[in-house]
Every structure is written in C-alpha cells, then in structure tokens.
Model the fold of this input.
Amino acid sequence: MPAARLQAFLALALACLFWSGNWIAGRALRDDLDPVALNFWRWVIAVAVLAPFALPALLSQWPVIRRHVGVLLLLALTGVAMFQSLVYLGLRSTTAVNGVLLNSSGPLFILLGSWILEREGATLRQVAGMLLSFAGILVILSRGELENVLRFRFGIGDAWLLLAMAVWGIYSVLLKRRPPELSGTGFLFAISVAGVLLLAPAYAVLAIQSPPRWPGMEAAAGVLYMGLAASVLAFICWNRGVAVLGANTAGFTLHLLPAFGTILAILFLGEAFHTFHAAGIATIVAGVLLATLAPRVR
Done:
C-alpha cells in the first residue's frame, strides 16, 4: 500500500477513535447542556485553539475564501452546525447503544450522497465490506445473542440521529469541493468560524429563554475534550483522509467507531472483555479492509 494511502487510513482511524469518546461524552452531558449550547461551545473552543495557527495565513487568502464562500458555508452548516447538534439532540432521548448502531449507517448515506451529488456508484466489494462490518457491530451490540438485536426500538431520538448521519453523508461528499488552496488547518478554521456564527443566533435565543448555568468540572472537561479531540484533531484527520481516499472509501472506516468505543469502555470503564467483543471487532476490521483495500492487479 502506498505511504499516502496508509497515512490516510491511519488518519481516518484516529478520527474514529476521537469521535468514539465524543458519543460517550455527548450522552453523559445530556442533562448539563442543551444540544445547541453544547455544540456552540465545542466549536468556540476549536476556533480559539486553531486561531493562532490558521489566522495569519488566512488573512492573505481572503480572496480564496470569498470566491468559495458558498461551499464553505454549506460545509459549515452541515459538518459543524447541523450534524453534531442533531447528534446531541438525539442522545438526549436514546441510548448510547442505539446511537452507535445508527452511526453505522454513515457509510450508506455517504454512498447515497456520492451517487446523488457526484454520480459515483459503489462497487460490489464495497457493499460486501459494509455488510460484513455491520454484522460485526451487531455482534458487539447484541452481546452475541440475536434476541438482543430484535429488542431494538426506534424512537424520536433515533430519528434525530438518523437525520444527523444523512447530513454527515452530505458533508463528506461535499469535501471534494473544498478550496484546494486552503491548508487542512486553515480550512477547518474557516468552517469552524462560520459554524459558530451559524449557531450563535440559535444559542442566543435559547440563552434568553433559559439562562445558561455554569457546568461543573466534569462537564467542562467533557466539552474541552469535544473541542480539542473530537473537533480539531478528528476533523483534521477526517478531512485529510477523505481528500486522499475519497468520501466512499473513507466512509467505511466509520464502522471502526463502535470497535474503538468497545475498547475504550473496557479500558476506562472497567467493562469485562468477552469472546463476542473479539469476534465483533475482528469482523468489523475484516469488513473495513474488504471495502477499502483495492484488490491486487495480477
């Protein structure tokens, strides 16, 4: 595998690792902050962290930003303002298990978005890999027992999460149209600022209706993690991976998220490791490899 492709896959895997913690934190903070407020402060932190590195270069690239303001605003709306607000909204009324299961629909929405927006179809190999990795996710979520899958109930929170994944599919496909003149950090800073500006009116209305209260130390640490790891680092990694591999191929790595979430729960929450964990993770990895690795030409 060429070094550039390997680095892109590693970047996408890191993005999924950072995001797996974000889903856990989003569920944990559902009673501390409103979804819009949580997303707003998350990206305010990201803007503050990125500004010293990106702002000096962007000042000289203002003509580029002005020429591509339409696509930048659309990427900010989908990837920054809408997607995570919908995720946090959904996590208020559904379980983390349902959230992880619905997150696995991401590759399907990316494939649909690629077909609708770019007329780019999926290969049989990609579809087979998606189904195989999804089977691995079901093994983990069901704890190896089919009846646990059959108990899945679809509620309003699940509907919000499904809509969020559709929005994420649009964002990932539209990344193909990002201005190539902007560096990864500069591009993320531009859409982060735009996203904060898009979120600000909704946050202001909510703050007037219900004055925000200062979160405790644990909640503040969770928001800080979201701003640093799940926003800055994860988005830089994801955008880099999509730029190299394309949205379709990158989308299949989203199935690594529940695998990472399982490992993190075992390491940091003291959950026991069972045979079904190993079987599920191995199946997920096999499916991702099947969908993303190009067959050798003989």
